[in-house]
Design goal:
about 120 residues, mainly alpha, 6 helices, about 60% helix
């Protein structure tokens, strides 16, 4: 079976997962559609996709470990990496700052005070 770019991304994910978590990811986490979606978000750039995975797995921020490293979580990780300034948004120049601010907003925890007695 020929090695595709999706296989390359999944292989990188597996290696990084084993290095960080110490065991193989669940079979359900080796989702080719999610890997292809990551590749698409990264402009079909395999190296950028693998770079995003490395940034995610190698970040010392404990938030990532608390969220887990399921492949589906990579999209939340991308938002946080951009929002925290660890990864620059890509795309059109006029939308980069908007993208960064949106990602920062999505990454901030929200606290809500809830009264025990609501009217």
């Amino acid at each position: 079976m020929p090695n595709t770019v999706v296989d390359e991304i999944l292989g990188s994910y597996v290696r990084l997962y084993v290095k960080r978590v110490g065991k193989l990811p669940r079979k359900a986490d080796l989702d080719r559609v999610l890997a292809r979606t990551l590749l698409s978000i990264c402009g079909d750039d395999v190296e950028l996709s693998k770079f995003v995975l490395r940034m995610w797995f190698e970040s010392p921020d404990p938030w990532y470990a608390a969220q887990g490293f399921r492949l589906l979580a990579v999209f939340h990780a991308v938002n946080r990496l951009i929002g925290m300034g660890d990864l620059a948004p890509w795309g059109r120049d006029d939308l980069r700052d908007v993208s960064r601010r949106l990602c920062a907003g999505l990454s901030r925890p929200r606290l809500e005070i809830v009264s025990a007695t609501r009217p």
